[in-house]
Amino acid sequence: DEVKLGISLGFTGPLESMSPAMAQGAELAMKEVSDSGKFMSGSTVVGVRGDSTCVDSAAAAATVEKLITADGVKGIVGGMCSGETTASLQNVAMPKGVVMISPSATSPALSTLEDNGLFFRTSPSDARQGEVMTDEIMEHGIKSVALTYTNNDYGKGLADSFAAAFEAKGGKVTINAAHDDGKPDYSAEVAALASAGGEALVIAGYVDQGGSGILRGALDTGAFSTFVFPDGMVGGKLEADFGKEINGSFGQMPSSEGEGKDKFLAAAKAAGFDGTGVYSGEAYDAAALIMLAMAAANSTDPAVYKAKVMDVANAPGEKILPGELGKALELIAEGKDIDYQGASSVELIGAGESAGTFREIEIKNDKIETVKYR
Amino acid sequence: MSTHQPKAAKGGKWRAPAMFGALAVLFILEGTVSNTFFSGHWDNALGILRVGLISAILALGVNIQWGYAGLFNTGVVGFLALGGLAPVLVSMPATPGAFAAGGWGILIALCVAMATLVAAVFLWGRLPVRLRGWAVAATLVLGFFAYRAVFDPAVEAVQAINPSAQGYLGGIGLPVLLSWPIGAALAAAAAWVVGKTALGLRSDYLAIATLGIGEIIVAVLRNEEWLDRGVLNVNGIPRPWPVPYETNLQQDPGFLARAASFGLDPMTGSTLLVKLLYCLLFIAVLGLLIWAAQLALNSPWGRMMRAIRDNEVAAAAMGKNVTGRHLQIFIIGSAVLGLAGAMLISLDGQMTPSGYNPLRYTFLIWVMVIVGGSGNNWGSVLGGLLIWFVWIKAGEWGPTLMGMLADHLADGTLKSHLVDSAPHMRLVIMGVILLAVLRFSPRGLLPER
Amino acid sequence: MSFLDASEMIGGYGAADILHGCTLKVEKGQIAVIVGPNGAGKSTAMKAVFGMLRLRGGHVKLDGEDITGLSPQERVKKGMGFVPQVNNVFPTMSVEENLEMGAFIRTDDFRDTIEQVYELFPILREKRYQNAGELSGGQRQQVAVGRALMTKPKLLMLDEPTAGVSPIVMDELFDRIIEVARTGISILMVEQNARQALEIADQGYVLVQGANKYTDTGAALMADPEVRRTFLGG
Amino acid sequence: MIRVENLHKHFGGFHAVDGASLEIAKGSITGLIGPNGAGKSTLFNVIAGVHEPTSGRVTMAGEDITGLKPHELFHKGLLRTFQIAHEFPTMTVRENLMMVPAGQSGETLWNAWFGRGRIAEEEAALLKKADEVLDFLTISHLKDERAGNLSGGQKKLLELGRTMMVEAKIVFLDEVGAGVNRTLLNTIGDAIVRLNKERGYTFCVIEHDMDFIGRLCDPVIVMAEGKVLAQGNPSTIMQNEAVIEAYLGRGLKNKIKAETQA
Amino acid sequence: MDILNAFVAILNYIIVPATAYGAQLALGALGVTLIYGILRFSNFAHGDTMAFGTGLTILVTWAMQSAGLSFGPLPTALLALPIGIALTAALVLATDKVVYSYYRKVRAAPIYITMVSVGVMFVMNGLTRVLIGVDEIKFADGARFLISAPDFKAMTGLTEPLAIRATTAITVITAALVVWALFWFLARTRTGKSMRAYADNEDLALLSGIDPNRVVAVTWVIAAALATIAGTLYGLDKSFKAFNYFQLLLPIFAAAIVGGLGNPLGAIAGGFVIAFSEVSVTYAWKKVAMYLIPGYEPEGLLQLLSTEYKFAVSFAILIIVLLFKPTGLFKGKSV
Ligand SMILES: Nc1ncnc2c1ncn2[C@@H]1O[C@H](COP(=O)(O)OP(=O)(O)OP(=O)(O)O)[C@@H](O)[C@H]1O
Ligand SMILES: Nc1ncnc2c1ncn2[C@@H]1O[C@H](COP(=O)(O)OP(=O)(O)OP(=O)(O)O)[C@@H](O)[C@H]1O
Ligand SMILES: [Mg+2]
Ligand SMILES: [Mg+2]
């Protein structure tokens, strides 16, 4: 048998450069499950990609509509941006009763959305990261920072929660300025940040989007020399493009204390794509969760397996890392509990979103190095 | 340049019915035939139709401005977005305490801003030329600082209220259908301001001015959280009467019985019913607009408008108030855009200001108008429906085509590169279809005359 | 064998024909004038001769050579020059640049030709650096004729060259046209100032509804009372 | 009727109209002649509200109309034609005429939607009127042709036709004759005289065809270099040495003499 | 000293970056304005022509680099540029042949040709991504800085840094050269004049013996060259990413229009107006104020508007300019 899962991401549009690695992450999990031969008595899983454009709610809804009706997918990895995700969830997935797990929609508003238990996400809450980042910066003895965020719900949410946490602990945010992704020039932003000053610059953006432009400008004009990188900025590109210029800067990303991310990276490398891409691991986890829940419910009907998603994601049970999906299926078949950790140390809380532990990193000797876990 | 135009397309009076017939066939195929190109589900066909109808209204709005009067408005996205604000302001519940915290402050600040502008305009008119530059600048600067002094704390107070879910003033909790005319009114008001200042500009200059105004409006909506939560989006905007929620239908015994009698499972039945109701609602609005637009175009009023479009200098010499008429038509067209914006938001059920990008909401609409045949109302409707259909389907056909291509290749980097770039075939296909239409019907599918 | 021989021309803009077998001939060094009511197809006939209109019938020969299939700019190279009735200057180029463009196909030194044009139309020398689009109607007309003269054509075609020019300039223009013709250049022109034009014409054509109605020498046409009454304003 | 006082119009440093003062008497057919570039069209354009004057004043029946917009002047009964024809190219010839009259009730949207009965009546009347004008101009076979497709002379006729669609007080004609067949021009001349006599239109006519001017106009005003050079009845003007020098030239004058003697 | 610091701050954060950005916009706007001026339509495909040309140049650069070629302290891409231009010109000419020539033949109204260019934009947009992908690509090699921030501080002892990237300098110099060459070409050469004549009155150009096909071809080649140069310089200075080039289209059009459509000088001025207004209106003047007024420590940032509004601000300035000069700063054309 063949089970189809939809992958609805913004393959064209402002985040188009992030989408391929995410889709490949999800497909990697599907391939792993299919190859194990242990899924639903030997069924295979294939992904069907659909373009959500990230910005156009109507087009995204049409895409998801088509995935569900025409392709007959049993679950969806996606969408990508919060607005588009909400629209396709409420207008299509919910009426059709199909599970959606978003790897990257981080808007807090999604937590309170009525979803009939059909919506989950594997990206962490922004609020927690703000606190983690505050502690880290304080420990570095930095008392004032300039802050710039990518102008979307992720960036805005993260920036606001960080600013609140940081100022609560006596720090000073000299400026809290947005930058838009995909703009041709960031001189104005860099100039404003530089003028506001601060001991370090926090860039709550994406490394392969505007975040890089800001970083480049800040480095070249000599405006800042220490940077703080939240999850969206920590990736292979950061090391490759800026390695030796940002030694001493630091940051954090959600990651299990174990070697989940590393295992995922190795698997991605073997599969021939760059697993360090933002949200690539989360996409892997989203796909894995859907399939494990199906196995646990022994049904591909969303109405049935939606109840199992939280079970397989959380304790109790044996911890499952990337590359161990076959083992997980075996355990499920034996009737044992599993606690899926995956590439992003999945821990679904509340209405089904990731709690996340964080890995603190520092750039040393031109490389991203893990300092500790929080 | 000599004036002869490519000759009107062939087909005469049967052309329009034939074109709409062909379009209907496309939608029917989408609803019934399942193959590489069509999904074979009515859900999809109606889903596309529903947004297509709104696109048709948008195209009609642009056509009223361009086709009737030659006004090159590329700020479509701005007026659309402004219309989209209406459902938020009209039908969302008010945020408790928000108005008390900062509402008055914001209102006062806006009044200050308004007063400053009025004063500046007044001074400009009254003072001697030598003084007025400085006086106006000083007024503006002072006014700006006064405005910021009142505005900033008020906004902060509003945004402090439960920021992750609210942090804005909210609306007044009225039925969402009411917001449609209000969206039109909002856009019309903005068009009045824009028109008063910018309508003296010539074609392409007006285009860039309106493009800028569109960007400015969207920037405001993206960044003024007290108004519409900015990039954080407003969710849960109620549906317009009489459209029910599918999940409610699926639990409604009456509906379940009815669906069963039609031989439909409740899931399919409910989604189809909802889409059908939306479509009917939109068709009603579109029909009303088309009726009004056709009557107007074929009246002496329309003749006057065409005369102004053809030659403004001569029209003015023949006693037509060119500026006044331009303003009128700009406001009407923008109101239609605002109406469509409000309809779109009440269809999506949410307001996502960062979704308003000019490629999708300005250029694509223009493509619809031009492909349909500018100056022809039915052409705009046709263009709206057709181009939207193509825009959506091209997203599916692109990867399909690429997949066929890649099937013959061995696995490897080239193949994976091709597969990864498949979504971009959407644009290629869209472009090729656009070029093909314009090639074989260079004045649009339904030319003006 | 006439220098220009455009015979039995049939053609139009859309499906309908405007020219119904119209024939125009000019001998070397002679002046031929076309008159006729508005909309008779005079301008259309000129365009047809110059290849700006596809002919459905008939042929155009220049100096014995069949040029029916040539494009306008190939005809320019064969020595034809044309001043259209409307849109006959480059509005955002200066007067001098307009004249230079007239000499576009010439590879020799054309400065003395410019001088000659300035002598003919002194106002143009005054306005040489002004854009042609800012000139008065009559001044524009002078630029247009000047531009065509710059080509040093063998056949000069003028579509109402005197429309809107003052009497003094008109007289000089006609004088100059006679002079030009004397140097061996053939001239084909459309005129509504028909009496003055026919006075200097060797050959006159009265065109009605795309066909030749009267063809005779200029003087003979002037003498024909019927022609005078119906076409020359009495 | 129209009084122009010390009018200046400068384009950059160039003085196109340079202190012209003149008067157009009510009920007259005033001719305005002068060499190319004398500033005649510019003067027209200033009076008709197309250009703002640099300085000076224009009054109409005692009322100051300086700087009014063209459409406002139209409503005061001031009409004009253009030297370079300004047709509405994508509209039919008939529509070109029917759009002219002001105050058509169908020109408001409300009536377009809800007052269709009245519009239909008005339209029928307009249509009749337009067809009469077309007949008069001998171009009724072109009524459904796009105006952009007309020949040069036909466009000029259309220009004139528009002024015949309404009751005007004063009509400015900028070279109606250029490019118009002389036989037809005579007919137009007759029509101008008739409109002047029967309906009391005042005309101001720019024209380079001295026959036409001589037959029609009294008085004739001569402009040169932005100023009024001479003024008087046609025969004195044609004898005026300065005018001959600047404008008429010797050749034509003799000819005209010869013809008037013949 | 403090005055110097204030000056350097302004230089470093406003003047240098805005000059570079302005030059990039100006080069792009030059291409748009040329096509508008001569072929009489707004070419929406210009941004994607830039992207495509740059993509090709990058491929050639890579080939050169792997063959061991380099251009000393200058980026190899400059060496690859002529080949990139040639390839792009070929593509653009082919596009003209297949697509645009038909509309010239039937004399379609400009708006239709503009829409056709939107179609071309879609196609090119896709092709570029298929050719070189959607990722960010860095292809600048050679020296990074003319003056780097730490060096400058060490050299002058000022607290404010100043950095000038080599690519910035190259951009400005190339832009100046290209502009001069274009002007000379249009105003002085026969071909240049014939192009202007064609732009003015196509029919009359024909009657003067000007070959329209040649004019059109030359225009496209120049436009392709301008696009490739602009795109490559932009890519060198920032980085190459297909999506950004579409985003660049808006400010480029704004620049062309504010300067006056069809007027090359206007395009240059427009580019700088847009760039400088973007950077300066959203600048936080706090630091400069502190240098200039000793002992002054302002509460806020002294920022007129936040950077979210920078694009809006540059458009607002543009609208104001147009209100006072309705056809742009340098009297452009209007159809
Ligand atoms: N927009 C303009 N810019 C600069 N100069 C202008 C402009 N318009 C007209 N002129 C100049 O003003 C002068 C008067 O022009 P105008 O059109 O009024 O002449 P005219 O008397 O009507 O001549 P004609 O009999 O040839 O039509 C001319 O020399 C012309 O070059
Ligand atoms: N571009 C065009 N498309 C269609 N019909 C046209 C076009 N140009 C002219 N015509 C028609 O062709 C006929 C002849 O026009 P043409 O311009 O040759 O007349 P003409 O003899 O030059 O008149 P005039 O003396 O008024 O200039 C006219 O009836 C006109 O309506
Ligand atoms: Mg003619
Ligand atoms: Mg004149």
Topology:
The complex is a heteropentamer of chains A (374), B (449), C (234), D (262) and E (335).
Chain B: H1 15-32, H2 42-69, H3 76-91, H4 98-126, H5 129-159, H6 179-198, H7 203-223, H8 225-228, E1 234-235, H9 246-251, H10 253-262, H11 266-297, H12 300-310, H13 312-317, H14 322-348, E2 350-351, H15 358-372, H16 377-407, H17 413-421, H18 425-440
Antiparallel strand pairs in B: 1-2
Helix pairs in contact in B: 1-2, 1-16, 2-11, 2-14, 2-15, 2-16, 3-6, 3-7, 3-14, 4-5, 6-14, 15-16, 16-17, 16-18
Chain D: E1 2-11, E2 14-24, E3 29-33, H1 40-47, E4 55-60, E5 63-64, H2 70-75, E6 78-80, H3 93-98, H4 109-114, H5 116-136, H6 152-163, E7 170-174, H7 182-199, E8 202-206, H8 210-216, E9 220-224, E10 227-232, H9 234-239, H10 241-261
Parallel strand pairs in D: 3-8, 3-9, 6-7, 7-8
Antiparallel strand pairs in D: 1-2, 1-4, 4-5, 9-10
Chain E: H1 2-39, H2 46-66, H3 76-105, H4 110-132, E1 145-147, H5 149-156, E2 164-165, H6 166-188, H7 190-200, H8 202-207, H9 212-237, H10 242-259, H11 264-281, H12 286-292, H13 310-324
Antiparallel strand pairs in E: 1-2
Helix pairs in contact in E: 1-6, 1-9, 1-10, 1-11, 1-12, 2-3, 2-4, 2-9, 2-10, 3-4, 3-9, 6-7, 6-9, 7-9, 10-11, 11-13
Bound molecules: adenosine-5'-triphosphate (2 copies) and magnesium ion (2 copies).
One magnesium ion is lined by residues 40-41, 83 of chain D.
Description:
Chain C: Residues 1-234 form the ABC transporter domain. Chain C: Keywords: Amino-acid transport, ATP-binding, Nucleotide-binding, Transport. Chain C: InterPro entries: AAA+_ATPase, ABC_transporter-like_ATP-bd, BCAA_Transport_ATP-bd_LivF, P-loop_NTPase. Chain C: One of its GO terms (molecular function) is branched-chain amino acid transmembrane transporter activity. The complex is a heteropentamer of chains A (374), B (449), C (234), D (262) and E (335). Chain A contains 13 helices and 16 strands. Chain A is of the alpha/beta class. In chain A, β13 (348-349) and β14 form a beta hairpin. Chain A is globular. The model of chain A has no long low-confidence stretch (mean pLDDT 86). With 449 residues, chain B is mostly helical. Chain B is built from 18 helices and 2 strands. Chain B has helices spanning 15-32, 42-69, 76-91, 98-126, 129-159, 179-198, 203-223, 225-228, 246-251, 253-262, 266-297, 300-310, 312-317, 322-348, 358-372, 377-407, 413-421, 425-440; strands at residues 234-235, 350-351. The model of chain B is unreliable at 1-10 (pLDDT under 50). Chain C has 234 residues and is of the alpha/beta class. In chain C, strands 6-7-8-3-9-10 form a 6-stranded mixed beta sheet, sandwiched between helices. In chain C, strands 2-1-4-5 form a 4-stranded antiparallel beta sheet, covered by helices on one side. In chain C, α3 (95-102) runs parallel beside α6 (137-150). Chain C is globular. The model of chain C has no long low-confidence stretch (mean pLDDT 88). With 262 residues, chain D is of the alpha/beta class. Chain D has 2 domains: 2-87 and 166-260, P-loop containing nucleotide triphosphate hydrolases (Rossmann fold), CATH 3.40.50; 89-149, no CATH class. Chain D contains 10 helices and 10 strands. Chain D has a 6-stranded mixed beta sheet, with helices on both faces. A 4-stranded antiparallel beta sheet of chain D has the order 2-1-4-5, covered by helices on one side. Chain D starts with a strand and ends with a helix. Chains in contact: A-B, A-E, B-C, B-D, B-E, C-D, C-E. Chains B and E meet through α7, α15, α17 and α18 of B and α3, α4, α10 and α13 of E. Bound molecules: adenosine-5'-triphosphate (2 copies) and magnesium ion (MG) (2 copies). One adenosine-5'-triphosphate (ATP) sits between chains C (13-14, 18, 36, 38-44, 85) and D (145, 149-154, 179).
